[in-house]
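Sequence, structure tokens reproduced for reference:
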Amino acid sequence: MLDAPGRQESQSGGLLTMIYLGSTLFTMVTTTAERTGARPDPLQALQATDGAGCCAPAVVSPLPQEDALRQAAVFKALSDPTRLRMLALIAAQPASEPLCACDVESGFDLSQPTISHHLKVLREAGLVTVTKQGLWHYYAPAPGGLALARGALNTLGAGPTLS
């Protein structure tokens, strides 16, 4: 018999209380004597259940863990305005003409080590490639790098699936 949302009478005559904390369902049964007088220890009375009594279907993310880590690296790289501007500068170059790191540096009011750090983050995220010619490093858009970022956004719009 349901007497309030999340509460019903148990088979033993006590009151069954169900509480969700995150995705874990906890249940607590109190007897009539406990409800009228002494208070039970909530840590002993609460017990976790597997949620079998829950009627909501399990939700499965359409994004596997490995893909999430990869896409998070892309979003992290793109979240910095300087890196976003650097990527735009590199992507604007013809594919056959990679951009020298010194040319990237001249377009920003940052020190060479800071420029190198930002280019490294873009490279590790798979957004740019680097080739070394003598002492100079040349940067070009990575094949499929921008498609990876587009795909990450498309995945977010897919929504969860129910199992």
Remarks:
- The CA atoms of residues 12 and 31 lie 8 Å apart.
